[in-house]
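for the recovery benchmark. tokens below, seq after
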């Protein structure tokens, strides 16, 4: 259900959040820049760029040496194999120390980040406040929407849950032998009379009570065999 009201709420708050998101991104770029200009990164990136030797090729080589059954070849092949294993372990080790190393570089350059960190802290607080206002604005837009709002399914489920999945008029399905009615969520003051979609204006009714109470909905009948309790 698309309506300009909801699109506007989204757009407004997206615009409000943007500058603060940018501040948080700035901290990340600053961190990245510090890391990428450090001597550690220089060494690290070169070590990582060493060619990765495929173990299968080495094994193939070792097999050939066995085929020729020459002691020299076997020793040679074994040494290469060993070398590759050590090298791969070294690569694993590099991956393992990358994060701690990065942290060390950042800690050493903490003074360069202080202002960014402070701004980010403030930005996070502001974002939290904006998100809270956004939720409230969205809720209010839904409540005051002249027809069923986009969050209707959730709203409906909240009402059913609040009312214990029982008709607030007759208590159905409690005491009824057969489960033969639908549960509806009904507007106490109808929307067309200016009633809102607020939870206080919504209540759970079985389709029989709903039909009796809501003359405008005289066509209400059991619509499905799908039961909702
Ligand atoms: Zn009922
Ligand atoms: Zn109704």
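predicted aa per position
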């Amino acid at each position: 259900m698309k309506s300009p009201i909801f699109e506007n709420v989204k757009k407004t708050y997206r615009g409000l959040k943007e500058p603060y998101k940018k501040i948080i991104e700035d901290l990340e770029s600053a961190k990245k820049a510090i890391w990428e200009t450090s001597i550690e990164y220089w060494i690290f990136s070169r070590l990582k760029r060493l060619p990765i030797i495929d173990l299968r090729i080495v094994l193939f080589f070792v097999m050939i040496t066995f085929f020729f059954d020459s002691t020299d070849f076997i020793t040679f092949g074994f040494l290469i194999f060993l070398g590759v294993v050590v090298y791969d372990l070294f690569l694993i080790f590099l991956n393992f120390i990358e994060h701690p190393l990065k942290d060390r570089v950042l800690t050493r350059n903490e003074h360069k980040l202080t202002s960014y960190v402070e701004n980010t802290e403030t930005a996070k607080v502001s974002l939290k406040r904006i998100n809270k206002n956004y939720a409230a604005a969205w809720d209010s837009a839904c409540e005051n929407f002249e027809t069923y709002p986009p969050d209707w399914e959730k709203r409906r489920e909240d009402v059913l849950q609040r009312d214990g999945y029982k008709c607030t008029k007759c208590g159905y399905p409690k005491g009824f032998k057969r489960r033969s009615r639908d549960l509806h969520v009904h507007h106490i003051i109808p929307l067309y009379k200016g009633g809102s979609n607020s939870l206080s204006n919504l209540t759970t009714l079985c389709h029989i009570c709903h039909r009796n109470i809501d003359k405008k909905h005289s066509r209400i009948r059991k619509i499905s065999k799908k039961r909702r309790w």
